[in-house]
């Protein structure tokens, strides 16, 4: 089935997803307003010269991954991570510029210095920490969803067809290891449908191509809330882990961004930004890098 045919099917069954051809949504949540604190000079002074030279904080991102990043009807990249990135940049005395990239190319771009940060729903894992530092801003986990009324158990996945976004933790650390365990026990493996974006993975469930969606918990919740009651959560939260903004290992930009995030936490702007996107769970009260408090911030 082509992408255009998929969208036509979804329009018939779930009009809230009808913008899938252009990967757009209506826009900001009702009542949203920009939160851009003034520059804090002592934090701006922490920004390394190579990042401060042009006055712009560039961040590689891969929409759509709502509510973290997606495009509105005008094509602008919006989302809770975009708001957090813009607020952190503002505290550091910089303008914020998202740079749309394929998800798999973001971390290499950070490493190459073509963008300053990776801000695209990155789970802070031990493997990624070998090369990058992560400025942690919340905790999330893996959550499954199904068509409403189905009886899918994430703990009994053998023989199911499960949709994921390619190279995410749901793909690499959840579904594929479960599939391997099924085969080792002599059962049918999971058929994994890997998509470039999370919205296409959700569409696979809505159109019946997949039995379930596995995605990061805020992403799954967002898809369910916009499915016109045609999808529901199933099973519990698993693999809780920190989310973070990626910078090069041992870069001075990490502590500067952590200091800016701590300022947002202390002033309440952090909680306000997440609340505007309906995120109230998994919040932190202390900025961390690789889950470790940064000395002198709090």
Kindly provide the name of the CATH class of the largest domain. Alpha Beta
How many distinct domains?
2
What is CATH's topology name of the largest domain? D-Maltodextrin-Binding Protein, domain 2
User: What gyration radius follows from the Cα positions, in whole Å?
Assistant: 19 Å
Task: Based on the model shown, name its key terms.
298 residues, alpha/beta, D-Maltodextrin-Binding Protein, domain 2, 2 domains, 7-stranded mixed beta sheet, 3-stranded parallel beta sheet, 11 helices, 26% strand, globular, disordered N terminus
How are the secondary structure elements laid out?
Elements: H1 3-13, H2 41-44, H3 49-52, E1 56-61, E2 70-71, E3 77-78, H4 80-91, E4 95-100, H5 103-112, E5 117-118, H6 126-129, E6 132-147, E7 161-165, H7 169-184, E8 191-195, H8 198-206, E9 212-216, H9 217-225, E10 231-248, H10 253-267, H11 269-276, E11 283-289, E12 292-293
Parallel strand pairs: 1-4, 1-5, 7-8, 7-9
Antiparallel strand pairs: 2-3, 6-9, 6-10, 6-11, 11-12
């Amino acid at each position: 089935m082509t992408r255009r045919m998929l969208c036509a099917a979804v329009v018939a069954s779930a009009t809230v997803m009808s913008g899938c051809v252009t990967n757009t949504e209506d826009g900001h949540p009702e009542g949203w307003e920009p939160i851009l604190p003034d520059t804090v000079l002592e934090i701006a002074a922490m920004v390394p010269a190579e990042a401060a030279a042009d006055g712009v904080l560039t961040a590689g991102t891969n929409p759509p991954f709502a509510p973290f990043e997606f495009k509105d009807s005008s094509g602008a990249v919006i989302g809770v991570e975009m708001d957090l990135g813009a607020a952190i940049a503002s505290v550091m005395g910089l303008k914020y510029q998202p740079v749309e990239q394929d998800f798999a190319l973001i971390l290499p771009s950070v490493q190459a210095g073509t963008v300053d940060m990776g801000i695209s729903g990155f789970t802070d894992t031990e493997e990624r920490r070998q090369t990058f530092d992560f400025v942690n801003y919340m905790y999330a986990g893996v959550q499954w969803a199904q068509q409403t009324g189905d009886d899918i158990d994430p703990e009994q996945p053998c023989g199911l067809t499960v949709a994921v976004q390619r190279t995410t933790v749901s793909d690499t650390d959840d579904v594929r290891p479960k599939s391997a365990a099924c085969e080792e026990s002599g059962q049918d493996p999971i058929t994994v449908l890997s998509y470039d974006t999370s919205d296409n993975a959700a569409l696979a469930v809505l159109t019946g191509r997949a039995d379930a969606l596995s995605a990061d918990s805020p992403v799954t919740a967002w898809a369910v809330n916009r499915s016109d009651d045609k999808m529901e959560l199933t099973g519990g939260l698993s693999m809780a882990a920190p989310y973070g903004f990626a910078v090069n290992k041992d870069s001075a930009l990490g502590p500067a961004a952590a200091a800016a995030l701590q300022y947002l936490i202390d002033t309440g702007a952090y909680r306000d930004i997440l609340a505007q996107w309906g995120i109230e769970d998994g919040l932190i009260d202390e900025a961390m890098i690789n889950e470790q408090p940064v000395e002198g911030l709090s």
